[in-house]
Records
---
Amino acid sequence: MARKRLTREESRARTRERLLEAAAELFAERGVNGSSVEQIAERAGYSRGAFYGNFEDKHELVVALLESRTARELEEVAELRRDTESLDGLREWNKARAEHLEGWLALRLELLLYAVRNPEIRPRLAERELFARAAHTAGVERAYAARNTVPPADPEFLGLIVHALEDGLLLQRMLTPERIGAEVVVDAAEIVLR
């Protein structure tokens, strides 16, 4: 069976996606500043020219990576929202994420450090964080509605608490996985919701 030849746009999109994946891997391993354009292109299986055919520079790639990660998380959270009766969907999602926690957390922290060092990118990272907090807020609202109870505080504030707990707990889990289970975020969210 003959393979369908990719259009120019499809080929470019595939190259761009592979460059973003390679950058995410390298940033998690070596950091943004420890990864060169050449290393990213090589990891992706392309030339330096392919990199510059898709991105003006590494900064533009970091912005695109933030946007790509946000879009991917949007899809994941939309899937989680279908489970409105319990935290089971969130529990399963956290178990799956625990399998790749070190790489996920390294990339998250690296992108945060990049935003600290490059203030112009902070609004983009803030958008991503606001989205994550909104997802937690929606979960808090659903949980209280399912229990037919009134939240003890503004649901947005409770969503912020859950989001901050998630960051801190995942860092602690990465450091001492033998002491902290993969479901720690959900367990903490359940305690907050009580």
---
Amino acid sequence: MGSAIADVAARAGVSKATASRALSGKGYVAESTRQRVVLAAKEIGFVASPNAASLVTGQTKNIGVVIPFINRWFFGEILEGIEQALLNRGYDMTLYNIYPGSADRDRVFDFFLARKRFDGVIAIGVDSTPEETERLLRLGIPLLSVGAPVAGVRSLTIDDAAAGRLATEHLLGLGHRRILHIGGPVTGDDDASVQGRRLRGYVGAMTQAGLESELSFAQTAMSVPGGYEAGAHSLSDPSSRPTAVFAACDEIAIGVMIAARRLGVRVPADLSLVGIDGHEYAEMFSLTTIEQKPRAQGQAAVADLLAAVSGEAMAADVVDMPARLVVRASTAYARANADAV
């Protein structure tokens, strides 16, 4: 049976205002007092009403999260980091899946986000159009992007162009010249998407090495099946086969590796492979990768967003998150006669 906040206050020996602050987490309360109030609430079975608390604080204790994919490792890792960080701080999360090209995408931006009250919104890896970004900004609440930069919005992400360049330079340093880049679909401005920026890094490294004539790019889905399909097609002809592949994500790289094995192409003796992400299976497949920490990115996003919810200023800048090259057994020096194959 629930009890009023007055009963909690009386049992803890504090005022109703102090009890409310202790249970809502808003406003200063000494830690010893907070613990006394929490214990009193537990003893009498009091559960604070989020709706009632929002009337007092003006906050809903709910964060909206928009995500393009929920079944891919990178996005799932960020989402888990966000969810755990919000739970630790007593916040709820409402999730919207805005798959690119889906009929419901416009409805989420135009209706659902505007209708439901949130204290803030986090966009996970959303390559939003300027119009979609404007709709989010019109909500008038703290907004943060993680996993992909969004113009005019604080964004936590790795430098994708630098990651693409680093992956390609690693292969160039091993003596490879016929380097194929396999990435996601790129349309229009190459800076408008994660895939486009990673492609730009590849092109920049190859161009600087004087290998414009060797530029080769295959588009596929950013997934293991996508990598398998692109790998099966690109590796099937020995006369045009690349000696190395830079994959835009580890899932593509793993798919290419599976295709190579089925075609009898040895990794790394015949083909070197490098990806991006630091997938949980990368070590199992001995995959060289540009490792990032998506779960930590999600946790950092929550910390920054909730600071803004509490009134701290939040700059609309891009914060480069850590990424490093992890070399494993999927890359090796090019064979001396590789170009003669």
